[in-house]
Design brief:
The structure is a homodimer.
Chain A (H helix, E strand, L loop, with lengths): L7 H17 L6 H12 L4 E2 H7 L6 H13 L3 E4 L7 E4 L13 E6 L5 E8 L10 E12 L1 H5 L4
Parallel strand pairs in A: 4-6
Antiparallel strand pairs in A: 1-3, 2-3, 4-5
Helix pairs in contact in A: 1-2
Chain A binds a DNA duplex through helix 2 and helix 4.
DNA sequence: ACAACTTTGCAACAAAGTTGCAAAACATTG
DNA sequence: CAATGTTTTGCAACTTTGTTGCAAAGTTGT
């Protein structure tokens, strides 16, 4: 089955992009990986394992999803966003991320209404002065509140 | 079995404090709740469900721990700290927290070596300017790196 | 198109969390 | 301090989430 007609061009571009991303991480290009990566590229924000399991309508094994996400994190394709519920959420990395080393110095925003997680790439993480003796490695900022969409036109 | 001799005085004070905290949340004062609250009061930083299960040497049901932690969060006695692994971590709230509404505007620090989570009460959360349309409710800042103890005298 | 390698899906397992319910513990009266 | 009503605990059973080993299927490079 093919993508809807009006997606045709985008879809072709995406195919190339996806292959490139996977190859640059030394990962072979398989149907599952393409599917999952497509979901991330199309997603507004972050995705959890559960989101992917649901959205990937075609049959795809739970275990494959676990392993794919692990591989993507390890290769610096996606990164984990801290959450307060027990669900791990993942979002696409930017170019600065590489194998084993993530450098996502941007702010994450979680909407209380639609529950979408945004990566606010344009906003830099503010610098915090730590007490004597503490050495900073990485800083994560998670803001929750109401996103632009839900403010204007409340969802649900 | 009683607490060690040199803890006797502290222990008595703590008893009162614990009862007060529980009563102020309309929770009856039970052995399990006292035990868990004691662990939090004595802890340097945050605790996970697993930490509590291990440290509570006396027999205590897994399920009781789940329910106690849920009750404490709901009553504003403890709050959840966002993490990137799948483990929920809890820390004591300050006075500004009340039932259903948490306001912990402080920075959390997670040590990469000893894995302790500190609540840096003294440090205020910096203000972040959000894109147009986004409304902030609460900001969480989690910094990881090397804590003062591990820097001076590496653990393990 | 073949051989070497990687990935997938299955089965079986392990860990983490939830729910209903009866027994025990707690709080509140007189 | 004892009786009573309410809350909490522990058990059993279950659901959800995540992991590991291994044979079959898919992918890559020549």
């Amino acid at each position: 089955m093919r993508a809807a007609a009006h997606f045709e061009k985008e879809y072709n571009n995406m195919e190339e992009l996806i292959s490139e991303i996977l190859k640059s991480g030394n990962l072979s290009v398989t149907a599952s990986r393409k599917k999952i990566l497509t979901l991330f590229l199309k997603a507004d924000g972050a995705l959890s394992h559960g989101d992917i399991e649901q959205e990937a309508d075609e049959k795809m094994d739970r275990i494959t999803i676990y392993r794919t996400l692990q591989a993507f994190v390890q290769k610096g394709i996606i990164h984990i966003i801290p959450t307060t519920d027990n669900s791990i959420r993942y979002a696409l990395c930017k170019d600065e991320c590489s194998e084993g080393h993530h450098h996502d110095q941007h702010v994450h925003f979680v909407c209380n209404k639609c529950n979408t997680t945004y990566c606010l790439e344009q906003i830099n993480v503010p610098h915090v002065k730590l007490p004597t003796g503490f050495i900073e490695d990485q800083t994560e900022v998670i803001i929750n509140g109401l996103c632009a969409k839900c403010k204007v036109q409340p969802v649900k």
